[in-house]
Amino acid sequence: MSILTSEIQAALEKQAIELPSWAFGNSGTRFKVFGTPGTPRDPFEKIADAARVHELTGLAPSVALHIPWDKVDDYSALRDHAESLGVTLGTINSNTFQDDEYKFGSLTHEDESIRRRAIDHHLECIDVMDATGSRDLKIWLADGSNYPGQADLRGRQDRLNDSLREIYARLTGEQRLVLEYKFFEPAFYHTDVPDWGTSYAQVATLGERAMVCLDTGHHAPGTNIEFIVMQLLRLGKLGSFDFNSRFYADDDLIVGAADPFQLFRILFEVIRGGGLNNPDVAFMLDQCHNVENKILGQIRSVLNVQEMTARALLVDADALRAAQVAGDVLAANAVLMDAFYTDVRPALAEWREGRGLPADPMKAQLESGHQARIEAERVGGTQAGWGA
Ligand code: LRH
Ligand code: MN
Ligand code: MN
């Protein structure tokens, strides 16, 4: 008998993790971007790679796009291409962080013509959503300042709110706006949306379909991220995750690589707060694979999320509650740790096989010759990379 009960298996069955198109393009640091054979040259090839991850894991049925990195003439054709490969197009990410105009801000800018341009970019992203069938518009702003006195902090919050109201008003049907926060970078003194509180304060004024996006790499070291997860779920405002892991700042490394225990704690609070398999909470990756193989990096990532989800589902909730109520500190902690230390990998391999998936998706990809095939096919042209 599997250690994964039928209830746990049913929860795992529904798990869906969205992949970022940019994970398949070249990336690096400000020091170097490495090119690698077989890297996609356009959004169509990025989607093909994402579909390969889904084919082997059954965990990644949608792909997030970043505009203009994934700009194409015909979004319906891109949608058809995705669907023909068994995946759908997901979150549309806006981008106001790479144009000269936005040096001093975008949706917060002092100059009305630049702020207008930034709002219009978001309205165009919603046009894209209409064509791709995407539900979520994700906004992350690089807006901020480097020196005390450089910017009017208060005025920028007011302009941000005006801008967001206009963007939100353009959404229709099920469409949503999710506002991501990040405590610093590229701005070093102040950031206009630095924390979950600011994001919450902004989206709370917009309406029900405006939510917070929590990127796990966007917090100061030592931040209790699972507490934020709990609070946002409690408030009904956790719209999405950008999963990744970090050792230092916004490292965008493979989720669960730096601190699997933190990922377990986050997923435990997701389950506790009713966020697992809840359509209101989107699970996305936001990662780059600078030095490792990108398809394998994405496979490893979704498996890490699945493994920690399975472990978190193993927590004996009744025993935990009893120990908490009894004030039995060590027993409560032991309940959590027992689940965390359970190796679920053999049970997940078995479960995968039962669904017609490879027991070991990493091995399956390595032995399939798929990488050699795309390397042979993708010659000429310009490889997609950070910023394209
Ligand atoms: C900003 C961020 C945001 C962007 C992505 C490329 O650091 O996390 O989500 O869209 O990186
Ligand atoms: Mn992010
Ligand atoms: Mn980031």
Describe the protein's architecture and organization.
By secondary structure, the protein is an alpha/beta fold. It has a single domain (15-377), classed as TIM Barrel, CATH 3.20.20. It has 14 helices and ten strands. The protein has an eight-stranded parallel beta sheet. Helix 8 (260-272) links the parallel strand 9 (238-243) and strand 10. Helix 10 (317-325) packs antiparallel against helix 11 (329-340). It starts with 5 loop residues before the first helix and ends in an 11-residue tail after the last helix. The structure holds 6-deoxy-beta-L-fructofuranose (LRH) and manganese (II) ion (MN) (2 copies). The site of one manganese (II) ion (MN) has 5 residues, from loops. InterPro entries: L-rhamnose_isomerase, Rhamnose_iso-rel, Rhamnose_isomerase, Xyl_isomerase-like_sf. It comes from Microbacterium stercoris. Its EC number is 5.3.1.14. It is an enzyme of class 5 (isomerase). One of its GO terms (molecular function) is L-rhamnose isomerase activity.
β-strand number: 10
Radius of gyration: 21 Å
The distinct bound ligands, ions and cofactors come out as: 6-deoxy-beta-L-fructofuranose, manganese (II) ion
Structural class: alpha/beta
Could you name the CATH homologous superfamily? Divalent-metal-dependent TIM barrel enzymes
Quick check: average pLDDT? 98
- Strand arrangement, largest sheet? 1-2-3-4-6-8-9-10
Any idea what the shape is? globular
Low-pLDDT sequence parts: none
CATH architecture descriptor text: Alpha-Beta Barrel
**Which strand-content bin applies to the residues?**
5-15%
Order of helices and strands: HEHEHEHEEHEEHEHEHEHHHHHH
Largest sheet, described in full?
8 strands, parallel
The number of domains: 1
- By CATH reckoning, the class would read Alpha Beta
